[in-house]
Amino acid sequence: MAENPLLALPHVETDRLRVEEELRAAVRAPTEAMTEMASHLIGAGGKRVRPLFAVAAAACGAGGDGPASLEVVRGGVSVELVHLGSLYHDDVIDEATTRRGVESVNSRWGNLRAILAGDFLLAKASEIAASLGTEVAGLLAATIGRLCEGEVMELQDAYQVTRTEAAYLASIDGKTASLLSSACRIGGIVAELPRPEIDRLTEFGTAYGMAFQIVDDILDVIATDEQLGKPAGHDLVEGAYNLPVLRALAGPSGAELGDLLGTPIQGETWERARTLVRESSAIDESVEVAEQYVAQAIDLLAPLEDRPAAVALQGASRHLLESLAAVRG
């Protein structure tokens, strides 16, 4: 499968290294214990999609062919720290034992320390955002609020076979798309792009984020543990009924699937439920929804297609579908 076009941008490797340096610098604390906990997932790696989106958005402006400014890098880092902090909290909620191939913070240090370390990451994100101006600070604060609202919506609908598609879309808009949208907006604001272009990049981030989460949810149903790098079918276990499940519930096998769901499941029941979703038309239908969001993301950047960074962001959107197609075979 081809490499993500975002990684082919000039200076991207330099910018990625600077993102890593700034992430580690941001989580240094007076105590060794807090520094170790706060940097635990940073050391485990990650694609750094959000900081790279901030960098690419900034590069859509005039003179965007050089390395990103320190302010742009730090803006992207602030969003990544919010993402990491949310993962710490998610792992406590889910009682997860691993994350990104390493022991989760809650498993290693306990829930209380994991919550406090997650709070520390959110605080450091806010501190960086404040250094970039009141608009960025306000935007990041609002993003944290939207993320929490999205997570609460999902928790309220846990194990509800009557969950609506509208409720699902509202939840992923908050818990996933808001971060990618804000990463693009912060990059544009810090780089002082024209306001119409900032708004366009913001909408792009939302559309990309919606497609990103839907693709992830499809993979949760159809991929193996090895392909995902984490336990597959996790959403079914946790009662977070995603788009493929909701579409399957509305289809011919919906009655049987509904009888299996509604409570925590495992073993043969989990296998049967996953098979019912896989064998229904729900996967193809969900792919179509993801394709619609990708098309929307690409169209939003059409006026900026004379800029390599915008073309790379369009390519990153297509890459979502290519990654999915590679797993589907």
CATH class type: Mainly Alpha
* Unreliable stretches: none
Helix content: over 70%
Radius of gyration: 20 Å
The CATH homologous superfamily is named: Farnesyl Diphosphate Synthase
The major β-sheet equals: 2 strands, antiparallel
CATH architecture group name: Orthogonal Bundle
- Count of runs of 4 or more consecutive helical residues: 17
The backbone outline, from C-alpha atoms, is globular
Mean pLDDT: 94
* Distance separating the two termini: 11 Å
Beta fraction of the residues? Answer: under 5%
Question: What structural category do the secondary elements indicate?
Answer: mainly alpha
Q: How many strand units?
A: 2
Throw out a few tags for this protein.
329 residues; mainly alpha; Farnesyl Diphosphate Synthase; 2 strands; globular
Explain what this protein looks like in three dimensions.
- With 329 residues, this protein is mostly helical.
- It has a single domain, classed as Farnesyl Diphosphate Synthase (Orthogonal Bundle).
- Helix content is 73%, strand content 1%.
- The longest helix is centred in the middle third of the chain and has 28 residues.
- It is globular and about 55 Å long.
- It starts with 11 loop residues before the first helix and ends with a helix.
- 47% of the residues are buried.
- The mean pLDDT is 94.
